[in-house]
Amino acid sequence: MTNITTAVKGATLSMCFSVGAVLFSSHAGGGFATGNQENVYFISLGWLGPITAIFTMLLFTLTIKEAMNMYNSRHLTSYKQLFQNLYSPVRGIEYLFEAFFYIMVLMAVSATISGAASALAAQTGMAYTTGIGVVGAVIFFLTIFGAGLVRRATTYMGIAILAMAITIFSVGIYMGGQVPGTHFIADALAADFAANGFSKLPTAILHAFTYSGFQCVVIPTMIVVGAPLVTRKNCATSMWFSFVMNAVALTMAVCMLMGWTGIYGKTPLPTLMSLKAMGMPWLTILYTVTLMLCLISTGVTTVFGFTARFSEMDALKKVTKSAVIRSAIVTLFIICLSMTVSMVGLTNIIKYGYGYCGYLAIAIIIVPFLTIGRMKNKRYATDAEYRERIDAMNEYPGMEEAEAAEEM
Q: Which of 65, 124, 160, 346 has the smallest number of Cβ neighbours within 10 A?
């Protein structure tokens, strides 16, 4: 009881903000910063684009809140246990998340590498191999030293990204319509509403669930860095912080790009092309810094979840007792593998890799956590007898008692 009380007192407002900033940093990655994700999932929706962006971030943060609450309240020790508890009494579905997670780690880190190579080549002329080497090295060293460093590093990066993103997107929104080939956002929204009305609403809903779905690759990382959030209120507070940060940044990005569609066309770097058209060198320099932070933050949060999962394997423990060396081996493996996948290009990774994984995540993550998971969390918090049975069954790896309890 003493340990639990201490942990609850330790979950301060600053800690809640820090965990929320980690989630924002994971979202604000290469696809977001380049504008590629916004272009694929929101710009085509017209006037529904900004509204869908807000709804998407609400789905995303509510899902992560339920995941962290289930993990922390039941004192679970792995994301496999988390999904066993979510799906119980049905067996085997947790392996679908395993498949989703492995594929999405490859996609997310590949998008980071591809985005770094494309942006640095376009902005500075830096060679592709040099760009991926720099970003890979930073991700490598920030990942291998544990959850504390990840939480601190991504919090600072998240604050910097949010401040710079608001500055960049504010200028872009203001400049819309003042450069040939662009238009004011209000005019664009009004024209699209008049032309299409609500015809794109079904597509908007699908895009919201798909986008929030593939972002859930960060669940393994969030349940580790969010361990100090031991109460439902802690988890909720943290995710409301994150919702505000994510919704503001994504909505502003969508609004800005809607005014510059005639400039960037089909380029894989819509934001960079739009900023160059504004004729403000300082803005493109600020963007380059923001982009690198975004790439690194997503790379760190994504790779860390994979590293935490495999660095504790018995086979690696036989190789070395050093947790740092084991983490280094796993991290190096996934970064090298992702470099190979990155050769297919950023747009293809986001459109196809993220898209299909997002469809899977709707069925195995978003809907289950927001329905069954939420009900189980509420019952666990209020029903002492149910809570006692669940705690007892989680002591058994086979979870036979868990299934029996869930069936009642």
A: 124
